[in-house]
Amino acid sequence: MAEYNPILSAPQGANKKPKRVGRGSSSGLGTTAGKGNKGQQSRSGGKTYVGFEGGQMPLYRRIAHKGFSNYPFKKEYVCINVEQLEAKYNDGETVNKESLSAKGFIPSKGTVLVKVLGNGDIKKKLTVDVDKVSESAKAKIEKAGGSVKVAESAAEAK
C-alpha cells in the first residue's frame, strides 16, 4: 500500500459521506427524508416547470408578444474620447483598430466598432481611421493638424 502523502491528499472536509435519506428517525433524515411535510414537492418526480404560478396563467402567457425588436440588429460602439488619444498616442501616429488594441483600448479578439468622441482637448497631429467620429472630435483633430478617415462599412450604414 502507498505511503501517506499530504501533497496528494484532499484537504480536511473535502470528501464527505453522502446523505442517506429515509433510513430511520435516528439518522436525522428519516420519516419525511428532509422534504418537509406532504404536498407536491415532497413526492418523487414532483417538480414544476420554470414560470409555473400554481395554476394561475403564467406571466409569459398573460403578456402579448407582438411587434418587432431591433435588438438582434443593434450596433454597439466602444467610445474613446479625444483626451484618451492625447494621453496614449505620440505626435504623428495613426489611430486604428490595431493600434487601439495594442494600447489596450479595445480587445484584440472579436470585431468591435469604435467611435471617437470629443471630450477633452488634443494638441497632437494624429491620423484617425475608425468606424465613427463625432463632429466635435473631428473638428478638434483637424484643428490640431490631424486627419480623420471614417471606415466605409460605417459610411454605408447611414
Question: How would you describe the overall organization of this protein?
Answer:
By secondary structure, this protein is of the alpha/beta class. The protein is built from 5 helices and 6 strands. Helices cover 20% and strands 14% of the residues. The strands form 2 sheets. The chain has a 3-stranded parallel sheet with strand order 1-3-5. It starts with 58 loop residues before the first helix and ends with a helix.
Summarize the structure.
This protein is α/β, with parallel strands linked by helices and 158 residues long. 20% of the residues lie in helices and 14% in strands.
Q: What structural class do the secondary elements suggest?
A: alpha/beta
Radius of gyration: 31 Å
With strands numbered from the N-terminus, the spatial order across the biggest sheet is: 1-3-5
Q: Provide the residue-averaged pLDDT.
A: 88
**How many strand units?**
6
Summary keywords:
5 helices; alpha/beta; 158 residues; 3-stranded parallel β-sheet; 6 strands
Secondary structure: elements and pairs:
Elements: H1 59-62, E1 77-81, H2 82-88, E2 94-95, H3 97-102, E3 113-117, E4 127-130, E5 132-133, H4 135-143, E6 147-150, H5 152-156
Parallel strand pairs: 1-3, 2-4, 3-5, 4-6
